Amino acid sequence: MTGTKIFGHRGAKGSYPENTLIGFQKAIDEGVDGLEIDVHMTADGEIVVIHDERLDRTTDGDGYVKDLTLEEIKEYSAGSRFPHFRNYEATWDIEKVPSLQEVLELLTPYDIELNIELKTNRLLYTGIEENVLALVHQYGGDRKVIYSSFHLPTLLRLKALDESVDIALLSREISHPYDYIQTLGLEGLHLDVNTVLSNVHQLKGIFGDLRVWTANESNEIKQLLDLNVNAIITDFPEKAAFYKSER
Ligand code: G3P
Ligand code: CA
């Protein structure tokens, strides 16, 4: 069997509301080895699991996460915007934007990895690194947590706060990030699938872990399994887990 791990992207984004507790539970039920989640910080310093800086696209609320308290964000549904999914159930309407604490608590019984992407590449959230680490230390148990970001200073801040953290740079290009791995002590790279599959020859001699996002097509998933990358991050974890089980 391949050692490639299957990570559910924002849960099981292709089939269930992204970054919701129900989506995470479904991805776990579909056999993921890990979950990828996105985090932002609220006006009152809480860490919430949502992809965008604003509520508008994925909830029935609006405004910036940074301008709202956790209690205010909890007033909105994080599931009602997804009735087009064939699995849609009315109970999705009561899904809320989860806090990082709630996600860590949901995962407690499961032996899976967690990739926390800190969404710090567009907005500055002073103190987000400290608050994320505090929650993981309090509620994460001994789970393997990988911290990723497009924003290198965020990763270096995490490392400065706790040298034992596993940090991985998100990138769409392959040359300079390799230099970063060597000189800055990153544990890995998270590259997009097109960059990886069009630069396969450059993957040899990679330092650290390589996880690849967002691989949704069957041919992409099969090629990445052949390449034995460390993880495939996908919106369709059930499909990827099936191809993995065939190996
Ligand atoms: O972590 C990989 C991937 O999630 C990065 O892109 O926009 O889906 O967060 P995005
Ligand atoms: Ca992400």
Strand order of the largest sheet: 1-2-4-5-6-7-8-9
Report the CATH C-level class.
Answer: Alpha Beta
Calculate the mean pLDDT score and round it.
94
Largest sheet entry: 8 strands, parallel, barrel
The N- to C-terminal Cα distance equals 5 Å
Low-confidence stretches: none
Class of secondary structure makeup: alpha/beta
Brief summary:
By secondary structure, the chain is α/β, with parallel strands linked by helices.
What would you note in describing this structure?
31% of the residues lie in helices and 19% in strands. The chain is globular and about 50 Å long. Helix 3 runs parallel beside helix 4 (128-139) and helix 8 crosses helix 9 (237-245). An eight-stranded parallel beta barrel has the order 1-2-4-5-6-7-8-9, surrounded by six helices. It has helices at 21-29, 70-73, 100-107, 128-139, 152-161, 175-184, 193-197, 218-227, 237-245; strands at residues 5-9, 34-41, 47-49, 113-118, 145-149, 166-171, 188-192, 209-213, 231-234. It is an alpha/beta fold and 247 residues long. The chain has nine helices and nine strands. The structure holds SN-glycerol-3-phosphate (G3P) and calcium ion.
Describe this protein with a few key phrases.
eight-stranded parallel β-barrel; binds SN-glycerol-3-phosphate; binds calcium ion; single chain; TIM Barrel; 247 residues; alpha/beta
Helices and strands in order:
Blueprint: E1 5-9, H1 21-29, E2 34-41, E3 47-49, H2 70-73, H3 100-107, E4 113-118, H4 128-139, E5 145-149, H5 152-161, E6 166-171, H6 175-184, E7 188-192, H7 193-197, E8 209-213, H8 218-227, E9 231-234, H9 237-245
Parallel strand pairs: 1-2, 1-9, 2-4, 4-5, 5-6, 6-7, 7-8, 8-9
Antiparallel strand pairs: 2-3
Bound molecules: SN-glycerol-3-phosphate (G3P) and calcium ion.
Residues 9, 36, 38, 51, 117, 148, 170, 190, 213-214, 233 line the site of SN-glycerol-3-phosphate.
